[in-house]
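Re: the pair you flagged

First of the two:
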Amino acid sequence: MSGHWTVQNSFAFEGRDPVGEQRDSECAITLWHQKARDGSAPRLDEFDFQRLRTDWGYRFLISTDEIVPAAVFIIYGLPFARLLKLSDQAKTNLPLMPQLPPRYRGLFVEGCTEVLARPEPARYSGAAIRHDGKIELYRAAFMPLLGSKSTRPLIFGSFNYRTVVHESTSDALRAYNRLGERARREDRLAPD
């Protein structure tokens, strides 16, 4: 499984508490593995997409092909839609990229591309900066599904983020310098 992590520890959490949401990508991957058989992706009909309206709210289903920017959402949960300011119902006739906030388009292209290249779960976590300067710590998972009648590849996924406030640059620099000084002191005091 692939993935990324690109966050530093100089953040303070703000706003909603996503307890139960923040690990949904890992739960989705576990579910995918439970349904996968003989090393191949699970079939679409093995998943209960009615649950998107309840406890699967941060999950989605994408139909794509080798031209990932032409991918479309088939269905997604209402919490996912509200998080990314999408319409309550998936617009299956519009490519998904223009519907997504620009800061997450690259993530969705990379996730879909990786699953098409290697049909196994791809997980991501990192940080995205909003236009107002706030930072979003995100988790995402993209997994292939086999459709019974679909000629296009299907990608099942989960995405969520929480907003954090970043310390000022000067505060972060001071903290970094303090850590460096402490490490140098400990290094000098350590026995050879």
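Second of the two:
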Amino acid sequence: MNRKVLLVYANPNPKAFNHSIFESLQKGLRTSGHEVKVKNLYAEAFNPVLDFKDYNALKEGSTPADILREQECIDWADGLIFVYPLWWFDRPAILKGWIDRVFAYGYAYGPKEDGSMSGLLKIKRAWAFQTAGELESSFMKFGGRAAIETPMLDGTLKYCGIANSEMFSYFALGQKTGEERNEILESIEKMASDF
């Protein structure tokens, strides 16, 4: 089954391993017939700050034009993939800000009759690829995988209605050989072809 996939990339360094992941995903997706739209947040100089003017406009049901364009990309897609480095146990600020502004109340989530919140996004599947220079054991001292996966998987994707979401983490990349890195990229390209 071919999908429409929105690929969101958040790394300022075009020579980072993240960029190679980003390219491998595009190649795997396109080769297998998926339609792909790309959001390169740094290259686009996306404004990640949810300021008071935007906050008020969203609250009043008037979505600012730049946010609406991003939401239209999400509405087009039935699959969503994120690629980013792990900074301070979380996503880079530009990606967190993209989510703050675009996954707005009334668009990505909203209230149910009982007052609890319900996810509203219609995305069928989401993946997040994150990389870290540290050994995985370094993160185990501070809450392990839950500490680095919960904000994106549970606090964002599942909260907004994307139940079928997975994270793929790659640690200690500076210690990997060129051959090991190539194996990772080949594996990612194959995964993407089966998305």
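The chain has a mean pLDDT of 92.

-B.
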